[in-house]
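Dear colleague,

Thank you for sharing your sequence with our group. We've completed the structure prediction you requested, and as agreed, I am returning the results in plain text so they can be pasted directly into your records. Please verify that the sequence below matches your submission; if there's any discrepancy, let me know and we will rerun it promptly.
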Amino acid sequence: MAAEYSDPTGATRWLLRQATRLLAPVLDRAPVGFAVLDAGLRYLYVNRALADLHGLPVAGHLGRTAAQVAGQADPVVPGLPEVVATGAVHRDVELDLVVSGRPRHFLVNRFPLLDERGAVLAVSVVVQDLTEAHRLAALEHERAARRLRSEWTGRLEQAQQLGGVGSWDVDLRTGEVSWSANMCRIAGLPGSPRTVDDVLALMHPEDLDRARAYYDDLVAGAPAAGAEFRLVRPDGGQLVVSSTAEVVTDASGVVAGLRGVCVDRTAQRQVEQEAREARVRAELAGAELLAEQQVVLRLQRALLPPRIPRVGGVELAVAYQPSDRAAGVGGDFYDAFLLPDGRLGIAVGDVVGHDVEAAVTMGRVRNAIRAYAVEAPGPGRLLGALNRLVHRDPDLALTTAFYGVYTPGTGELAHANAGHPHPLLRREGVVSELAHRHGLMLGVEPTARYATRRVTLRPDDVLLCFTDGLVEHRDLDLDRGVEALRDALAAPGPRDLDHLVRRLIAEVAPHEGRDDICVLALRRGPAGSAG
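Please find the predicted C-alpha coordinates below.
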Protein backbone atom coordinates (compact mmCIF):
# COMPACT_ATOMS: atom_id res chain seq x y z
CA MET A 1 0.00 0.00 0.00
CA ALA A 2 1.25 3.53 -0.78
CA ALA A 3 2.52 5.69 2.06
CA GLU A 4 0.13 8.14 3.71
CA TYR A 5 0.67 11.84 4.35
CA SER A 6 -0.06 12.86 7.96
CA ASP A 7 -2.44 15.85 8.10
CA PRO A 8 -3.68 17.29 11.39
CA THR A 9 -7.17 17.85 9.95
CA GLY A 10 -9.41 15.09 11.20
CA ALA A 11 -11.72 15.13 8.20
CA THR A 12 -8.81 14.83 5.79
CA ARG A 13 -7.28 12.00 7.78
CA TRP A 14 -10.61 10.20 7.70
CA LEU A 15 -10.84 10.75 3.96
CA LEU A 16 -7.30 9.47 3.46
CA ARG A 17 -7.94 6.38 5.57
CA GLN A 18 -11.06 5.60 3.58
CA ALA A 19 -9.33 6.19 0.25
CA THR A 20 -6.28 4.13 1.09
CA ARG A 21 -8.19 1.34 2.76
CA LEU A 22 -10.77 0.92 0.01
CA LEU A 23 -9.03 2.06 -3.14
CA ALA A 24 -5.30 1.67 -2.76
CA PRO A 25 -5.19 -2.14 -3.28
CA VAL A 26 -6.71 -1.57 -6.71
CA LEU A 27 -5.29 1.83 -7.63
CA ASP A 28 -1.68 1.06 -6.69
CA ARG A 29 -1.41 -1.32 -9.65
CA ALA A 30 -3.78 0.49 -12.00
CA PRO A 31 -2.36 1.54 -15.41
CA VAL A 32 -4.13 4.89 -15.01
CA GLY A 33 -2.59 7.63 -12.83
CA PHE A 34 -4.59 8.51 -9.70
CA ALA A 35 -3.94 11.01 -6.92
CA VAL A 36 -5.72 12.73 -4.00
CA LEU A 37 -4.64 16.25 -3.00
CA ASP A 38 -5.88 18.28 -0.04
CA ALA A 39 -7.40 21.77 -0.28
CA GLY A 40 -3.90 23.22 -0.19
CA LEU A 41 -3.04 21.10 -3.26
CA ARG A 42 -0.65 18.86 -1.28
CA TYR A 43 -0.44 15.23 -2.25
CA LEU A 44 -2.27 12.95 0.19
CA TYR A 45 -2.20 9.88 -2.02
CA VAL A 46 -0.61 8.97 -5.34
CA ASN A 47 -0.45 5.64 -7.13
CA ARG A 48 2.56 4.22 -8.90
CA ALA A 49 1.41 5.08 -12.43
CA LEU A 50 1.16 8.79 -11.65
CA ALA A 51 4.40 8.77 -9.63
CA ASP A 52 6.21 7.19 -12.60
CA LEU A 53 4.81 9.90 -14.83
CA HIS A 54 6.62 12.48 -12.70
CA GLY A 55 9.75 10.37 -12.41
CA LEU A 56 9.55 10.39 -8.61
CA PRO A 57 8.80 7.69 -6.05
CA VAL A 58 5.45 7.68 -4.29
CA ALA A 59 7.05 8.94 -1.09
CA GLY A 60 8.53 11.87 -2.99
CA HIS A 61 4.99 13.17 -3.62
CA LEU A 62 3.33 12.91 -0.22
CA GLY A 63 3.16 16.20 1.69
CA ARG A 64 4.46 18.18 -1.25
CA THR A 65 2.31 20.51 -3.33
CA ALA A 66 1.40 19.74 -6.93
CA ALA A 67 3.47 22.73 -8.06
CA GLN A 68 6.54 21.44 -6.23
CA VAL A 69 6.27 18.03 -7.84
CA ALA A 70 5.30 19.18 -11.32
CA GLY A 71 7.85 19.76 -14.02
CA GLN A 72 7.57 22.23 -16.88
CA ALA A 73 4.51 20.45 -18.23
CA ASP A 74 2.27 18.50 -15.92
CA PRO A 75 -1.30 17.18 -16.55
CA VAL A 76 -2.23 17.32 -12.85
CA VAL A 77 -1.74 21.00 -12.04
CA PRO A 78 -3.96 22.81 -14.61
CA GLY A 79 -7.40 23.52 -13.23
CA LEU A 80 -6.78 22.34 -9.66
CA PRO A 81 -7.26 25.79 -8.07
CA GLU A 82 -10.63 26.14 -9.80
CA VAL A 83 -11.82 22.76 -8.53
CA VAL A 84 -10.84 23.71 -4.94
CA ALA A 85 -12.34 27.18 -5.18
CA THR A 86 -15.64 26.32 -6.88
CA GLY A 87 -16.16 22.58 -6.45
CA ALA A 88 -16.35 22.26 -10.26
CA VAL A 89 -15.89 18.90 -11.97
CA HIS A 90 -13.42 18.71 -14.85
CA ARG A 91 -14.52 15.75 -16.93
CA ASP A 92 -12.58 14.24 -19.85
CA VAL A 93 -10.19 17.18 -20.36
CA GLU A 94 -7.72 16.48 -23.17
CA LEU A 95 -4.21 17.94 -22.82
CA ASP A 96 -1.39 17.97 -25.35
CA LEU A 97 1.89 18.54 -23.48
CA VAL A 98 5.60 18.17 -24.15
CA VAL A 99 7.16 16.06 -21.40
CA SER A 100 10.91 15.45 -21.44
CA GLY A 101 11.03 16.70 -25.01
CA ARG A 102 8.35 14.29 -26.22
CA PRO A 103 4.78 15.25 -27.22
CA ARG A 104 2.29 13.52 -24.94
CA HIS A 105 -1.49 13.37 -24.96
CA PHE A 106 -3.43 13.01 -21.71
CA LEU A 107 -7.07 12.58 -20.72
CA VAL A 108 -7.64 14.15 -17.28
CA ASN A 109 -10.58 14.08 -14.88
CA ARG A 110 -10.65 16.19 -11.69
CA PHE A 111 -13.31 15.71 -9.00
CA PRO A 112 -13.75 17.58 -5.68
CA LEU A 113 -14.16 15.55 -2.47
CA LEU A 114 -16.69 17.38 -0.26
CA ASP A 115 -17.56 17.27 3.43
CA GLU A 116 -21.11 17.16 4.76
CA ARG A 117 -21.46 20.94 4.36
CA GLY A 118 -20.31 20.87 0.75
CA ALA A 119 -16.89 22.35 1.47
CA VAL A 120 -14.00 21.00 -0.63
CA LEU A 121 -11.74 18.81 1.50
CA ALA A 122 -9.62 17.39 -1.27
CA VAL A 123 -9.37 16.81 -5.00
CA SER A 124 -9.06 13.50 -6.82
CA VAL A 125 -7.23 13.46 -10.14
CA VAL A 126 -7.29 10.70 -12.73
CA VAL A 127 -4.72 10.91 -15.54
CA GLN A 128 -4.76 8.59 -18.52
CA ASP A 129 -1.81 8.69 -20.92
CA LEU A 130 -3.27 8.33 -24.42
CA THR A 131 -0.05 9.12 -26.26
CA GLU A 132 0.51 5.60 -27.55
CA ALA A 133 -3.16 5.15 -28.41
CA HIS A 134 -3.12 8.42 -30.37
CA ARG A 135 0.10 7.39 -32.12
CA LEU A 136 -1.42 4.07 -33.16
CA ALA A 137 -4.62 5.79 -34.27
CA ALA A 138 -2.59 8.29 -36.31
CA LEU A 139 -0.62 5.45 -37.90
CA GLU A 140 -3.82 3.59 -38.72
CA HIS A 141 -5.34 6.78 -40.13
CA GLU A 142 -2.23 7.31 -42.26
CA ARG A 143 -2.31 3.70 -43.47
CA ALA A 144 -6.02 4.04 -44.28
CA ALA A 145 -5.31 7.28 -46.15
CA ARG A 146 -2.57 5.59 -48.15
CA ARG A 147 -4.83 2.67 -48.94
CA LEU A 148 -7.57 5.09 -50.00
CA ARG A 149 -5.20 7.12 -52.18
CA SER A 150 -3.88 3.97 -53.78
CA GLU A 151 -7.38 2.64 -54.34
CA TRP A 152 -8.64 5.87 -55.87
CA THR A 153 -5.53 6.25 -58.01
CA GLY A 154 -6.20 2.80 -59.44
CA ARG A 155 -9.85 3.62 -59.95
CA LEU A 156 -8.99 6.88 -61.69
CA GLU A 157 -6.62 5.11 -64.05
CA GLN A 158 -9.28 2.52 -64.76
CA ALA A 159 -11.92 5.21 -65.26
CA GLN A 160 -9.68 7.01 -67.76
CA GLN A 161 -9.22 3.81 -69.71
CA LEU A 162 -12.87 2.85 -69.59
CA GLY A 163 -14.26 6.38 -69.87
CA GLY A 164 -13.11 6.97 -73.42
CA VAL A 165 -10.83 9.95 -72.73
CA GLY A 166 -8.27 11.10 -75.33
CA SER A 167 -5.93 14.07 -75.63
CA TRP A 168 -4.86 16.18 -78.59
CA ASP A 169 -2.39 18.98 -79.48
CA VAL A 170 -2.10 21.45 -82.34
CA ASP A 171 1.16 23.28 -83.09
CA LEU A 172 -0.02 26.51 -84.72
CA ARG A 173 3.48 27.33 -85.99
CA THR A 174 3.70 24.17 -88.08
CA GLY A 175 0.02 23.24 -88.36
CA GLU A 176 0.82 19.77 -87.05
CA VAL A 177 -1.87 17.85 -85.15
CA SER A 178 -1.07 15.13 -82.61
CA TRP A 179 -3.66 12.76 -81.14
CA SER A 180 -3.06 10.35 -78.29
CA ALA A 181 -3.42 6.63 -78.93
CA ASN A 182 -6.69 6.50 -77.01
CA MET A 183 -8.05 9.46 -79.01
CA CYS A 184 -7.26 7.55 -82.21
CA ARG A 185 -8.97 4.47 -80.81
CA ILE A 186 -12.10 6.51 -79.98
CA ALA A 187 -12.25 7.84 -83.56
CA GLY A 188 -11.49 4.43 -85.06
CA LEU A 189 -8.28 5.64 -86.74
CA PRO A 190 -5.02 3.67 -87.07
CA GLY A 191 -3.00 6.85 -86.41
CA SER A 192 -3.28 10.53 -85.64
CA PRO A 193 -4.58 13.02 -88.23
CA ARG A 194 -1.77 15.24 -89.52
CA THR A 195 -3.52 18.57 -90.01
CA VAL A 196 -6.52 20.52 -88.79
CA ASP A 197 -8.18 19.93 -92.17
CA ASP A 198 -7.80 16.19 -91.61
CA VAL A 199 -9.62 16.60 -88.30
CA LEU A 200 -12.38 18.74 -89.81
CA ALA A 201 -12.87 16.09 -92.49
CA LEU A 202 -13.98 13.71 -89.72
CA MET A 203 -16.77 16.05 -88.55
CA HIS A 204 -20.41 15.31 -89.20
CA PRO A 205 -21.55 17.67 -91.99
CA GLU A 206 -24.13 19.30 -89.72
CA ASP A 207 -21.44 20.10 -87.09
CA LEU A 208 -18.66 21.24 -89.47
CA ASP A 209 -19.35 24.98 -89.30
CA ARG A 210 -19.58 24.90 -85.51
CA ALA A 211 -16.26 23.01 -85.29
CA ARG A 212 -14.53 25.58 -87.54
CA ALA A 213 -15.89 28.45 -85.43
CA TYR A 214 -14.70 26.72 -82.25
CA TYR A 215 -11.19 26.31 -83.68
CA ASP A 216 -11.04 29.92 -84.90
CA ASP A 217 -12.12 31.23 -81.49
CA LEU A 218 -9.36 29.24 -79.78
CA VAL A 219 -6.73 30.48 -82.22
CA ALA A 220 -7.89 34.05 -81.60
CA GLY A 221 -7.23 33.57 -77.90
CA ALA A 222 -10.82 33.28 -76.75
CA PRO A 223 -11.30 31.95 -73.20
CA ALA A 224 -11.06 28.18 -72.90
CA ALA A 225 -14.41 26.62 -73.55
CA GLY A 226 -16.02 23.29 -74.25
CA ALA A 227 -17.95 22.08 -77.25
CA GLU A 228 -19.59 18.90 -78.43
CA PHE A 229 -19.40 17.46 -81.94
CA ARG A 230 -20.31 14.37 -83.89
CA LEU A 231 -17.52 12.51 -85.67
CA VAL A 232 -17.92 10.02 -88.49
CA ARG A 233 -15.67 6.99 -88.11
CA PRO A 234 -14.05 5.34 -91.15
CA ASP A 235 -16.51 2.45 -90.81
CA GLY A 236 -19.42 4.90 -91.15
CA GLY A 237 -20.41 4.83 -87.49
CA GLN A 238 -21.09 8.07 -85.66
CA LEU A 239 -19.85 9.08 -82.23
CA VAL A 240 -20.32 12.10 -80.00
CA VAL A 241 -17.30 13.71 -78.35
CA SER A 242 -17.05 16.69 -76.04
CA SER A 243 -13.87 18.71 -76.28
CA THR A 244 -12.30 20.98 -73.66
CA ALA A 245 -9.32 23.04 -74.79
CA GLU A 246 -6.87 25.72 -73.77
CA VAL A 247 -4.36 27.86 -75.63
CA VAL A 248 -0.57 27.44 -75.29
CA THR A 249 1.48 30.63 -75.44
CA ASP A 250 5.21 31.10 -75.98
CA ALA A 251 7.55 33.19 -73.84
CA SER A 252 6.35 36.40 -75.51
CA GLY A 253 2.68 35.63 -74.83
CA VAL A 254 1.81 34.80 -78.43
CA VAL A 255 -0.58 31.86 -78.96
CA ALA A 256 1.65 29.08 -80.21
CA GLY A 257 -0.59 26.06 -79.92
CA LEU A 258 -3.71 24.42 -78.62
CA ARG A 259 -4.18 21.42 -76.40
CA GLY A 260 -7.18 19.67 -74.95
CA VAL A 261 -9.01 16.49 -74.15
CA CYS A 262 -11.98 14.77 -75.73
CA VAL A 263 -14.45 12.51 -73.95
CA ASP A 264 -16.49 9.96 -75.85
CA ARG A 265 -20.10 10.82 -74.99
CA THR A 266 -21.68 8.42 -77.49
CA ALA A 267 -22.96 5.88 -74.98
CA GLN A 268 -24.08 8.62 -72.58
CA ARG A 269 -26.03 10.47 -75.27
CA GLN A 270 -27.53 7.20 -76.46
CA VAL A 271 -28.65 6.39 -72.92
CA GLU A 272 -30.10 9.90 -72.57
CA GLN A 273 -31.97 9.50 -75.84
CA GLU A 274 -33.25 6.09 -74.76
CA ALA A 275 -34.27 7.60 -71.42
CA ARG A 276 -36.22 10.35 -73.18
CA GLU A 277 -37.91 7.79 -75.37
CA ALA A 278 -38.60 5.61 -72.31
CA ARG A 279 -40.18 8.57 -70.52
CA VAL A 280 -42.39 9.20 -73.52
CA ARG A 281 -43.37 5.53 -73.61
CA ALA A 282 -43.97 5.55 -69.86
CA GLU A 283 -46.15 8.63 -70.14
CA LEU A 284 -48.13 7.03 -72.94
CA ALA A 285 -48.43 3.78 -70.98
CA GLY A 286 -49.47 5.72 -67.89
CA ALA A 287 -52.09 7.58 -69.86
CA GLU A 288 -53.35 4.31 -71.32
CA LEU A 289 -53.39 2.70 -67.86
CA LEU A 290 -55.24 5.68 -66.43
CA ALA A 291 -57.74 5.54 -69.26
CA GLU A 292 -58.19 1.81 -68.71
CA GLN A 293 -58.64 2.35 -64.98
CA GLN A 294 -61.23 5.01 -65.65
CA VAL A 295 -63.11 2.65 -67.95
CA VAL A 296 -63.02 -0.16 -65.39
CA LEU A 297 -63.93 2.24 -62.62
CA ARG A 298 -66.94 3.42 -64.59
CA LEU A 299 -67.81 -0.23 -65.17
CA GLN A 300 -67.53 -0.93 -61.46
CA ARG A 301 -69.63 2.05 -60.50
CA ALA A 302 -72.19 0.97 -63.09
CA LEU A 303 -72.37 -2.45 -61.45
CA LEU A 304 -73.11 -0.91 -58.05
CA PRO A 305 -76.72 0.05 -57.34
CA PRO A 306 -77.48 3.53 -58.72
CA ARG A 307 -79.56 4.34 -55.65
CA ILE A 308 -80.62 2.83 -52.37
CA PRO A 309 -84.26 2.40 -51.34
CA ARG A 310 -86.08 4.69 -48.92
CA VAL A 311 -87.78 2.75 -46.16
CA GLY A 312 -89.85 4.26 -43.40
CA GLY A 313 -88.25 4.07 -39.98
CA VAL A 314 -84.82 3.30 -41.46
CA GLU A 315 -81.95 5.59 -42.45
CA LEU A 316 -79.44 4.18 -44.94
CA ALA A 317 -76.10 5.56 -46.14
CA VAL A 318 -73.53 4.03 -48.48
CA ALA A 319 -70.08 5.03 -49.76
CA TYR A 320 -67.56 3.62 -52.19
CA GLN A 321 -63.94 4.71 -52.76
CA PRO A 322 -61.72 2.98 -55.33
CA SER A 323 -58.19 1.81 -54.60
CA ASP A 324 -55.32 4.27 -55.15
CA ARG A 325 -52.94 1.47 -56.16
CA ALA A 326 -51.71 0.79 -59.66
CA ALA A 327 -54.03 -2.21 -60.01
CA GLY A 328 -56.67 0.32 -59.11
CA VAL A 329 -59.98 -1.44 -59.43
CA GLY A 330 -61.29 -4.22 -57.25
CA GLY A 331 -64.45 -6.09 -56.47
CA ASP A 332 -65.81 -4.45 -53.32
CA PHE A 333 -69.57 -3.98 -53.40
CA TYR A 334 -72.62 -3.01 -51.37
CA ASP A 335 -76.32 -3.39 -52.01
CA ALA A 336 -79.65 -2.55 -50.39
CA PHE A 337 -82.99 -3.58 -51.83
CA LEU A 338 -86.61 -4.22 -50.84
CA LEU A 339 -87.92 -7.77 -50.71
CA PRO A 340 -91.46 -8.57 -51.88
CA ASP A 341 -92.69 -8.81 -48.27
CA GLY A 342 -91.47 -5.28 -47.44
CA ARG A 343 -88.33 -6.29 -45.59
CA LEU A 344 -84.94 -4.79 -46.50
CA GLY A 345 -82.04 -6.83 -47.85
CA ILE A 346 -78.53 -5.47 -47.29
CA ALA A 347 -75.21 -6.88 -48.50
CA VAL A 348 -71.52 -5.95 -48.43
CA GLY A 349 -68.85 -8.05 -50.09
CA ASP A 350 -65.30 -8.18 -51.41
CA VAL A 351 -64.16 -10.16 -54.45
CA VAL A 352 -60.55 -11.37 -54.42
CA GLY A 353 -58.42 -9.51 -56.96
CA HIS A 354 -58.05 -6.06 -58.50
CA ASP A 355 -58.91 -6.23 -62.19
CA VAL A 356 -61.77 -6.33 -64.67
CA GLU A 357 -62.55 -9.94 -63.70
CA ALA A 358 -62.99 -8.91 -60.08
CA ALA A 359 -65.36 -6.13 -61.11
CA VAL A 360 -67.34 -8.50 -63.33
CA THR A 361 -67.52 -11.11 -60.53
CA MET A 362 -68.76 -8.41 -58.20
CA GLY A 363 -71.60 -7.53 -60.57
CA ARG A 364 -72.64 -11.14 -61.05
CA VAL A 365 -72.49 -11.92 -57.31
CA ARG A 366 -74.55 -8.83 -56.46
CA ASN A 367 -77.18 -9.75 -59.05
CA ALA A 368 -77.23 -13.33 -57.78
CA ILE A 369 -77.86 -12.10 -54.23
CA ARG A 370 -80.94 -10.21 -55.44
CA ALA A 371 -82.17 -13.20 -57.41
CA TYR A 372 -81.68 -15.70 -54.56
CA ALA A 373 -83.20 -13.26 -52.07
CA VAL A 374 -86.59 -13.72 -53.72
CA GLU A 375 -86.48 -17.52 -53.62
CA ALA A 376 -84.45 -18.10 -50.42
CA PRO A 377 -84.65 -14.96 -48.34
CA GLY A 378 -83.02 -16.55 -45.29
CA PRO A 379 -79.45 -15.22 -45.08
CA GLY A 380 -77.85 -18.60 -44.34
CA ARG A 381 -79.66 -20.35 -47.20
CA LEU A 382 -78.88 -17.49 -49.57
CA LEU A 383 -75.14 -17.60 -48.86
CA GLY A 384 -75.18 -21.38 -49.26
CA ALA A 385 -76.72 -21.08 -52.72
CA LEU A 386 -74.33 -18.27 -53.61
CA ASN A 387 -71.36 -20.35 -52.45
CA ARG A 388 -72.32 -23.22 -54.75
CA LEU A 389 -72.66 -20.81 -57.66
CA VAL A 390 -69.21 -19.27 -57.12
CA HIS A 391 -67.61 -22.68 -56.62
CA ARG A 392 -68.90 -24.29 -59.79
CA ASP A 393 -68.39 -21.29 -62.08
CA PRO A 394 -64.70 -21.02 -63.06
CA ASP A 395 -65.23 -17.43 -64.20
CA LEU A 396 -66.12 -16.31 -60.68
CA ALA A 397 -63.47 -15.45 -58.07
CA LEU A 398 -63.47 -16.18 -54.33
CA THR A 399 -65.61 -13.67 -52.45
CA THR A 400 -66.37 -12.63 -48.89
CA ALA A 401 -69.90 -11.42 -48.16
CA PHE A 402 -72.16 -10.29 -45.34
CA TYR A 403 -75.89 -10.51 -46.01
CA GLY A 404 -78.71 -9.43 -43.78
CA VAL A 405 -82.52 -9.10 -43.88
CA TYR A 406 -83.94 -6.26 -41.80
CA THR A 407 -87.57 -6.01 -40.69
CA PRO A 408 -88.43 -2.29 -40.32
CA GLY A 409 -91.43 -2.79 -38.04
CA THR A 410 -89.65 -4.85 -35.38
CA GLY A 411 -86.03 -3.86 -35.93
CA GLU A 412 -85.01 -7.49 -36.27
CA LEU A 413 -81.94 -8.21 -38.39
CA ALA A 414 -81.32 -11.76 -39.60
CA HIS A 415 -77.81 -12.12 -40.94
CA ALA A 416 -75.11 -14.53 -42.10
CA ASN A 417 -71.43 -14.11 -42.91
CA ALA A 418 -69.12 -15.73 -45.47
CA GLY A 419 -65.62 -14.79 -44.32
CA HIS A 420 -66.33 -11.06 -44.18
CA PRO A 421 -65.27 -8.58 -41.44
CA HIS A 422 -67.79 -8.38 -38.59
CA PRO A 423 -70.12 -5.38 -38.84
CA LEU A 424 -70.13 -2.97 -35.90
CA LEU A 425 -73.18 -2.04 -33.82
CA ARG A 426 -73.36 1.29 -32.00
CA ARG A 427 -75.88 1.40 -29.16
CA GLU A 428 -76.11 4.36 -26.81
CA GLY A 429 -72.56 5.43 -27.61
CA VAL A 430 -71.05 1.98 -27.08
CA VAL A 431 -69.67 0.15 -30.12
CA SER A 432 -69.32 -3.62 -30.32
CA GLU A 433 -68.84 -6.18 -33.06
CA LEU A 434 -71.91 -7.97 -34.35
CA ALA A 435 -70.68 -11.24 -32.93
CA HIS A 436 -71.32 -14.34 -34.99
CA ARG A 437 -69.38 -17.28 -36.31
CA HIS A 438 -67.83 -16.77 -39.73
CA GLY A 439 -68.68 -19.14 -42.53
CA LEU A 440 -66.13 -20.00 -45.21
CA MET A 441 -65.37 -17.56 -47.99
CA LEU A 442 -67.67 -18.09 -50.98
CA GLY A 443 -66.28 -20.60 -53.51
CA VAL A 444 -63.92 -22.51 -51.21
CA GLU A 445 -66.03 -25.57 -50.36
CA PRO A 446 -69.28 -26.41 -52.16
CA THR A 447 -70.87 -28.04 -49.08
CA ALA A 448 -70.10 -25.16 -46.71
CA ARG A 449 -72.98 -24.15 -44.43
CA TYR A 450 -73.81 -20.68 -43.20
CA ALA A 451 -75.72 -20.11 -39.99
CA THR A 452 -78.40 -17.42 -39.73
CA ARG A 453 -78.12 -15.23 -36.62
CA ARG A 454 -80.61 -12.66 -35.35
CA VAL A 455 -80.33 -9.40 -33.48
CA THR A 456 -82.93 -6.75 -32.74
CA LEU A 457 -81.91 -3.16 -33.34
CA ARG A 458 -83.22 -0.64 -30.85
CA PRO A 459 -84.29 2.85 -31.85
CA ASP A 460 -81.24 4.95 -32.84
CA ASP A 461 -78.94 1.89 -33.08
CA VAL A 462 -76.44 2.16 -35.95
CA LEU A 463 -75.20 -0.88 -37.87
CA LEU A 464 -71.96 -0.33 -39.84
CA CYS A 465 -70.96 -2.84 -42.54
CA PHE A 466 -67.64 -2.33 -44.35
CA THR A 467 -64.92 -3.98 -46.42
CA ASP A 468 -61.39 -4.45 -45.07
CA GLY A 469 -60.00 -1.57 -47.15
CA LEU A 470 -61.39 0.77 -44.48
CA VAL A 471 -59.27 -0.72 -41.66
CA GLU A 472 -56.33 -2.37 -43.45
CA HIS A 473 -53.17 -0.26 -43.13
CA ARG A 474 -49.78 -1.19 -44.52
CA ASP A 475 -48.00 -0.47 -41.21
CA LEU A 476 -50.83 -1.27 -38.77
CA ASP A 477 -52.20 -4.53 -37.44
CA LEU A 478 -55.73 -5.26 -38.72
CA ASP A 479 -57.09 -5.47 -35.18
CA ARG A 480 -55.66 -2.02 -34.49
CA GLY A 481 -57.44 -0.72 -37.57
CA VAL A 482 -60.76 -2.17 -36.37
CA GLU A 483 -60.13 -0.66 -32.93
CA ALA A 484 -59.57 2.76 -34.50
CA LEU A 485 -62.83 2.40 -36.43
CA ARG A 486 -64.70 1.48 -33.24
CA ASP A 487 -63.31 4.54 -31.47
CA ALA A 488 -64.26 6.82 -34.37
CA LEU A 489 -67.78 5.39 -34.53
CA ALA A 490 -68.25 5.82 -30.77
CA ALA A 491 -67.05 9.45 -30.82
CA PRO A 492 -69.68 12.21 -30.96
CA GLY A 493 -70.27 13.31 -34.51
CA PRO A 494 -72.79 14.36 -37.11
CA ARG A 495 -76.31 13.09 -36.75
CA ASP A 496 -76.72 12.71 -40.49
CA LEU A 497 -75.70 9.19 -41.50
CA ASP A 498 -74.14 10.26 -44.83
CA HIS A 499 -71.93 12.72 -42.98
CA LEU A 500 -71.04 10.05 -40.42
CA VAL A 501 -69.92 7.62 -43.13
CA ARG A 502 -67.76 10.25 -44.83
CA ARG A 503 -66.18 11.23 -41.51
CA LEU A 504 -65.32 7.62 -40.68
CA ILE A 505 -63.59 7.14 -44.02
CA ALA A 506 -61.65 10.40 -43.65
CA GLU A 507 -60.48 9.55 -40.11
CA VAL A 508 -59.82 5.83 -40.34
CA ALA A 509 -58.98 4.86 -43.93
CA PRO A 510 -55.31 4.81 -45.01
CA HIS A 511 -54.15 7.99 -46.74
CA GLU A 512 -52.01 6.09 -49.25
CA GLY A 513 -51.67 2.50 -50.42
CA ARG A 514 -55.41 2.22 -49.93
CA ASP A 515 -57.52 -0.71 -51.10
CA ASP A 516 -61.12 -0.39 -52.27
CA ILE A 517 -63.54 0.74 -49.58
CA CYS A 518 -67.25 0.01 -49.33
CA VAL A 519 -69.35 1.15 -46.38
CA LEU A 520 -73.04 0.60 -45.67
CA ALA A 521 -74.62 2.11 -42.57
CA LEU A 522 -78.15 1.50 -41.24
CA ARG A 523 -79.85 3.35 -38.39
CA ARG A 524 -83.15 2.33 -36.89
CA GLY A 525 -85.38 5.35 -36.51
CA PRO A 526 -87.10 6.45 -33.28
CA ALA A 527 -89.88 4.29 -31.87
CA GLY A 528 -93.09 4.58 -33.91
CA SER A 529 -91.31 6.03 -36.97
CA ALA A 530 -91.81 3.00 -39.25
CA GLY A 531 -94.36 3.65 -41.93
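Summary note from our side: Residues 120 and 335 are 84 Å apart (CA to CA).

Kind regards,
the structure core
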